[in-house]
Write a structure and sequence with these properties.
The protein is built from five helices and four strands. The chain is mainly alpha-helical.
Amino acid sequence: HPDPRRDRRHTRVISWLRENSLPLVTNWLAIGEAYHLLSDDAATARKLIRWVTGSMLIDERASSDVPRILEIMEKYEDLPADLTDAALLAMCERRQIREIATFDSDFAVYRTKTRATLVNVLA
């Protein structure tokens, strides 16, 4: 695996994290997807879990968002909106979060129930 510290996206995230003073919120679906993407390097994947659970608020209400998650997945089935994307959008709607940190370009298309866009702080 290439050294993530040499990846320009990694550098951008680290820079943003150093400057950010807002609380960070995620859910277990997003953590699971990130873990899966790093699963070829088990030590790095475990570091991610340690960092996330020590640095972020983990929203536990994804199961109550299932009806809205399904609505989002159906609305954006042409992309398609995957389960993690839909769960993050539903969480942002419920918590009235208007900013997201992602490299997923689909978030430029997604709209909340009120037709608002999320501001991607890494764009």
